Amino acid sequence: MIVYLDASAFVKRYIAEDGTPEVNALIDRADSVVTNLISRAEVAAAIMRASRMEIINREDALQAIHKFRSEWESVQRLPVTEATVSRADSLVSNYDLRGYDAVHMAAALIWQEAIIETITMATYDHILWKVARKEGLDIWPNQL
Questions:
Q1: Number of domains in the chain
Q2: Residue 101 belongs to a domain with what CATH number?
Q3: Are the C-beta atoms of 102 and 66 separated by less than 8 Å?
Q4: What is the pLDDT of residues 2-49, one digit of tens each?
């Protein structure tokens, strides 16, 4: 199984919250874990936001960032290209997605088309989850 993680799913690997055990199990059983380069900034920002909101303390946030950075190279990273941004632009118009969500969706769709194999989109964003389903990606979790 090829799993595309958007930032809403990816961050659960580094901050213990609802869904963390399930995300870790999904990653463990995946043949390949894929994301877009923008996840690096999005996940780091989400971890630090959790610290600012006192969901986790600063020391735990810095440890989470360190773990995230140490695992980054093991994740297949898709580039942000003109084709990705162009596809994202169309997705924004069609589904009223936020910018980075549209980039994630575009990257997953382009990757699925390139490898001619079904991609599982892992997201906890309700809108992105619904769009992934409409666009023909397998979705995870099965229900939100």
A1: 1
A2: 3.40.50.1010
A3: no
A4: 999 999 999 999 999 999 999 999 999 999 999 999 999 999 999 999
User: Helices 99-115 and 82-95: crossing angle, nearest 10°?
Assistant: 120
Give the domain range for residue 12. Answer: 2-140
Encoding tokens for residue 62?
């810095």
Hunting for tokens 């969706």 — which residue is that? 105
- Residue 28: Cβ within 10 Å count: 8
- Are 44 and 71 spatial neighbours (Cβ–Cβ below 8 Å)? no
Backbone angles phi, psi at 19, to 5 degrees: 95, -15
Cα–Cα distance, 94 to 69 (Å, whole number): 34
Please give the Cα distance from 62 to 59 (Å, whole number).
5
Tokens found for residue 34: 């894929």
What's this model's pTM, rounded to 2 decimal places?
Answer: 0.93
